[in-house]
Structures are given as C-alpha cells and as structure tokens.
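Do me a favour: review this protein, sequence plus structure tokens, and tell me how the chain folds. Record follows.
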Amino acid sequence: MGAWEVKGPTTGTCKSWRDIDPDLAESVTKIKAPAGRGIAWEGADIWVYRDRPRNISECLAANVARWPDHEAYVFYPAGQRMTWRDVGEQVDRAAARLQRHFGFKKRDRLCLLTAGCPEYVISYLAVIQLGGIAVPVNLGLTADGLAAQINKVGAKGLVVSPDVWNGKLESIRTSLESVEVVFSTGEDAPSGTLAFSRLMTPGAEPIRPEAVDEWDLCAISFTSGTTGAPKGTMAMHINALGCAQNVVMAAKGLGPDDVNLCMPPLYHNTAVYADFLPALLSGGKCVVMAAFAPLDAIKLIEAERATWAVAAPIMLWMMMNHPEFCNHDCSSLKKIIFGGHAASETFINQLNDQFSPVAIVNAGSVSESTAVGFALPTEDALRKITSCGLATPNTDIAIFDDDGNEVTEPNVIGEVAYRGQQTNAGYWDEPARTAEVFRRDGFVLSGDWAKIDQDGYLWLLDRKKDMVVRGGQNVYCIEVENKLYLHPSVLRAAVVGVPDHVFSERLKAVVVLKPGQSARAEDIREHCGRHLAKYEMPEYIVFSNALPTNPAGKTVKPPLIDFWGDVGEDVKARFDAFCASMPPALLDMPHMKLDGTPVTPREALSDLEQGTERAQRIMDVIVAQGIIALTAPNEARFRK
C-alpha cells in the first residue's frame, strides 16, 4: 500500500507533552500546510509552536542585535572563537559574494563536505540567507557515494576540506556536472578549488534580498549511504526551527548563557537540528568538535563549562567509562538529550549518577521528521525507563497496520508514524518514493515497529526496514550486501546486526562462497574497506554452506544473528567460532557482559578453556539464551 492511501481520520493515540503540561498546551496551535509549495502533505493540519521565527536567518539577526559581543562559536581543536557580531558580518559577506560573484540564488544547493569549522557554519547560514539550500554530506562515504549525493541534488557549489578534495573528489571532479564552483577551507586552496577566504573579503555590496518564509526549503539531508540513488529528505525552515524548539523545551529551557557541546559530526541530523540550531535559536554558545573523542569531550565540558548536549548514547557511554572521567569536573553539564531508540536501565542510571542532570531526555524521530518527534520526560526517565516517551508538543504520533488503518488498541504492534511541525516536505526529486512514505494527512511512516501502551507512551521495538544502527549511524544491510557481492568468491551474503553493549549493534556478514572458491575473513574485510565507509564495514565475518530461506526463496535473517558457522551445538566450538569471526582487536574489548560485569571475548574463551567456575556460568547462559545474551544491552528491542 502506498502512503498516499489514507483510510479515514487519524487521531494519533500517543500522549503528547501538551497533554501533561498546560503551559505547553498553550504554546502550540494548529495550522494548515499551504498548497502549491511542493509539500507532499499540503492541506494537512499540524501542530506548531505559536511563537516561532519565520526563518533561520531571523534567529541569527536577532542574536547579532541583542548580544553582539557574546561568544557564539568555539571550534575544537583549531581553537577559533567567534562572537555573534563576527558571525553576522562573515555570513553577510559570504552571502553577498555568493550572490554577486557566483550567481547563487533562491533554491540553489550548496553541499558542505567538511568537518565542524567556521567555514561550515558560515556557509550553512550564508546560503540559507539567500533562500538557498544547505546540503550536509557524510564525509565517511566513498568518492562514488559523495558523487551520488552531490549529483542527486544538482549542487551548484561545494565547500570542501583539502583532505576530502585531495582524497576523494578531485579524481571524480568531471562527473560532478552541476558543480560550478568549489571552495576549499584552510590557508592554501588545492588545484581546482578556490580559497574560501575569497568569500570573506570586505567591500561586497549587500545582497539583493529574496522573500524567504517558513515553508521554503533550508536543507536536504540524506537518509541512505552508498547507493547510487540516495534519498534526500527536504527540510523547510518550519521543520528545522520546530525541532530546535523541541530541544529547548525538552532541556527545560535554554538561553544565551547556556553552552552547548556539539559532539556529533555536523553532517549528521542530530548535530545540525538538535545541537547547532537550538544553540542558534537560544543565543547561547556552541562548542563544535571537528571529530568526537571521549577525553576531548570531557576536557571541553570542563574548560568551556558546557551546560547541555545532544549526542548518541555511545558518546556519553564512552565518556562516563573513560578512566580519566573522574579526574575532570563535568558538573556543569546538567541538560542531556540522547537516544533515537530505547535505552538500557544501566545507561540511564549511570547518566543520573554521574551528572545529576536537571534534564535527562531520551528523544528522537526519523530523518523525514527532522530529528525530535518523541521525547521521554525527565520525570519518567526511571519510571518508564525503556520507553521512548511522548509526542513532543508540536507532534502527533500514530501506529498503523499493514493496510494503512490506525491501530488504536494499546500494546498492539504496528508501524509508527509522525505528523507535525518537523515533518519534511518529501524526498528531493523522488515523487514515487515520497508516495511510499509521506501520507497526504501529514503522517510520515517511519519503517519502525512500535506500540503505544495503556498510558499513551511510545515503545520502539524493531525496524521494518532492513537497517542496523551502529553507534548512532544508520547502515542499510542491502547496501553492504551489494558490495559483498562484488567479491569474486562470494555466492550469497546476508548482513544482520548483532546486539552490542558499546555500539548498540555491530554489523555481521554471513557469507556463502562459490564452489571451489576460498576466502578468509581478512580478505572480506579488505574488500569491504575498498567499497564501504568505515562504519558500514561488517566486524563479524561468518562463513556458511547455505543461508536459511522461506518458501519464496527470501533469506530469513533472525536465525543468522546468533549463527557462528556450521559447528553444531557444542558450546565451546560455538564460542571458538564466535571469537574467530571478529577482528583481533575486538577480542580484547569488554563488549560482553556476564551478570552485569564486563568481560572480553578473550577472557571468556580462557575461562572455557580452563574450565573455571565462571566458565560454567558462561556455558549456562549460552545454552539457555545463546551467545548474544552476553552481547545484548538491556533494551526492549533485544528482549525475546
């Protein structure tokens, strides 16, 4: 069934924050999406915040006017610092140069291919000021992956770091047919690029302003990685600012004295919509990390007195479990938002113990609904500890069955969908794929199995899409499988996610070799390294004689999650095969737990070989629940 087929009115049975807080109920109102603006769900009624800026540029102008000398951005590790006056002046210069000298106009696309740095922030805000569209691109992609996204949006220009240009783009420049100009960050522009500093020279005439309202596009974010036809979801100003206001709300208020530590990479939706833009909206300082490292983040919290952050759970986990954590003062960090899926009790309790936060919120959504459509209130963090919470004030959440009917009975599983101020306009230049996901009534289908309990709380359970979330990065299994099939010895391949205490999931490839062919796990990893981004590479490589299939011949994947080769049921042989499937470095990582105590695979293997007292407990767990009982975090979606 296409998403366009709407069967009757839909109410959305998930309780909302507006239902539990009278002030929040007063802060929102319903409006109708306009027609003729390219919005897939035009005419639908949605909740929006009453007091909302008209566009992102209005927020910047307000900050420059009110707090010109307040620090706006700090960039790590380079150390640049910018006040709001600095930002305003540089954005104005860049916008004027882009328009007057390079012909940028409304709806032109500028792709950003650089880590967090001043040029990224200035570029993003400058192209938006012109009514153009910023397109952050995942730097972890291969050259072909980058080209696919640049060509998909028909980018007029690029802003690149020298390493990305020299390492990936220079060799494929001729394939980027729409690109008219490439700006390079840093001091010396590589051949084929112009120095970004050319946009910073003073004296350019002010821009010729074009009308930009909240229904204009401001950004395109890609939902997939390395395929030749990625989906670009189109965010409007109303979406981006609605998400930013949700973050401010969930954090129990943010203001000009608050300091954000932006840990995710700026090409990621979380960083843009849940760190960068809420900091802009509230007028506070944003400390941008070019790349995340746990000790660096710890030191930055202490040095900059960071008060809030939105990050992947693994980032917070790595910080709290770093041996240097207790030697630094992180007490200023009191507003913490994380998530995207159910979190474990252990993680929540550790956050609570280590930071004593005033706001500790599990929040998330899907790219098509910007970033934050649900959030678990701080007051429920322990009471509903593995729930994903309630709809944000400007969101409705509903559950649908396979026929498109709304599921209204509590605790019945269906596909969760979101409607509200964050719902994007659709997919760029993809009407058919838009019709599969964006319903005419304003709901966008997520591809996630979920239920809503008797109290109206949302519980995410699993993904309909064949996708693995590894450390906050979405990896589509079919894309990895397609690359595996390029190996000359591979006959069949299936990729699944193995539950993991550190990354939530790690990728695993089960491979059937062609008759008479041979390959080692190292060969498969080397092959993957040439075709996939690092986060997309399978860490577990398992060889099999065949893959399980259903009567239609489709691979049945659930049995593969805890399959470690054709070794029979002997516990020791199974665990030997499990250890042999992973790279050597993983053997010494404590990514398993036995009765709540971290243990490395090598330690467990030694116990089994020596027949220790702990070995018997390990064997009992494996016999009763499988090896993945040792690797799986305590999250609802991993419980049988």
